[in-house]
Here is the input.
Amino acid sequence: LVSHICNLLTETATLCLDVDNKSNNETAAALLFSLLDILHGMLTYTSSIVRLALQAQKSGSGGDTQAAEDLLLLSKPLTDLISLLIPLLPNEDPEIFEVSSKCLSILVQLYGGENPDSLTPENAESFAELLTSKKDPKEQKLLLRILRRMVASNEKHLESLKSSSCFLQALEQLAHADSLSADSAVTSLALEILNAICTK
Here is the structure.
């Protein structure tokens, strides 16, 4: 199932992201949403199994951590989709953004910045565009938490973001936003990422 989802999502997302191909866009978008929904279900299930195993470990009740480890290993190829999910985030369809961002969030929670090539200059630009265009603090926080997790777990991502001037500019705007209108959590997250990049 993992390899099928990876292949189908890759092909469908490529179709949706192809600006020259408008003919089957609606069909591709509908299929993309369905596939993202399936992916979200798979990731939510994996995340819940891992969470239960961690809770059992902490409480000392000796839960079955092997099942969680096996599931994580089995689902690991899904990390290849990280670099594909990022360009889907600026999609005009808010539903695509919502489910893509949720999938991305769970993937980085489970695997961190496992895929070192996921923050390409183009993907850094996608994040910059999103951080500038999204005005809902909830969405901004989700994006910033994704970024924080990625850069905290893989130094290569710090290097990628450091060389993206438009990303740094977007981050600075959020970090130094007017304190009266800005969300303090957004400002704090942006500042944290900015400091991590600048002190690298």
User: Anything to note?
Assistant: Residues 25-59 form the longest helix (35 residues). The chain has two domains: 1-111, 116-200.
